[in-house]
Amino acid sequence: MSDTREQVLGNIRSALGHGELDKARVAELRDHIARHPRHIEPAFSEPPQQRFQQKLEAAEASFAALDTLPEVVAEVERYLDACAAPKHLVTSGDEWLAALQWPESIELRPWVAKGDEKVSLTAAHCGIAETGTLLLVSGEHKPTSLNFLPDYHIVVLRADQLLLRMEDAWDSLRTSFAQMPRSVNFISGPSKTADVEQTVEYGAHGPRYLHVILVG
Question: Which of 23, 31, 105, 144 would you call most buried, defined as having the most Cβ atoms within 10 angstroms of its Cβ?
Fold first, then answer.
């Protein structure tokens, strides 16, 4: 720990009237953190997929449920046509996305968003039914820029990746990665703000449109 950080924490302890922690208390706290204990979890009665869709749509995202992975191609093309969006997509390097039979009308360019792309297509690490949230992680072929630079963000999620709660998502991260990814993004709808005169504006800090495709 740096001297500056130790000084700041020491000032906080003094202000709270606490002294230095003894070794037993430090070990107890470290053990508590390592166990990742769960606290009160809100209950909900609707099926996870239904709640996930409702929460997404309440946040102004669009949603499609498909039975099989090959149907993703037709759904992406349908969505782009409906939005009059360009069919030049920058994509994450997920092998199962690249392996789909894409028509010549759709051009895929992998991995790098430079800032002038209009549409990105990525896979999610998981979805959280409780809040209608997507969890996306960064990696060698999963640049975070794909989640924020294009105007249209299309995210594909398998049904077995839909989890109930935020705590389940963190458990999944700990199980899937020996070391946490450099960036973990939670996305619950298109980017929007009402900072100026309480008028909602889309695309303030990221995509104006979010379309989620759930498969299976």
Answer: 144
Measured in whole angstroms, the distance separating CA 170 from the mean position of its chain's CA atoms is 12
Task: Give the whole-angstrom CA distance, residue 206 versus residue 126.
Answer: 20
pTM: 0.85
Cite the beta strand spans of the chain per DSSP E. 62-66, 88-91, 107-110, 119-123, 126-128, 133-137, 152-158, 162-163, 184-187, 192-193, 201-202, 209-215
132: Cα within 13 Å, side-chain hemisphere: 21
pLDDT per position as a tens digit, 27-43: 888 888 888 888 888 88
| Residue 177 pLDDT | 92
Residue type, 141: H
- Where are the extended beta strands (E) located within 141-183? 152-158, 162-163
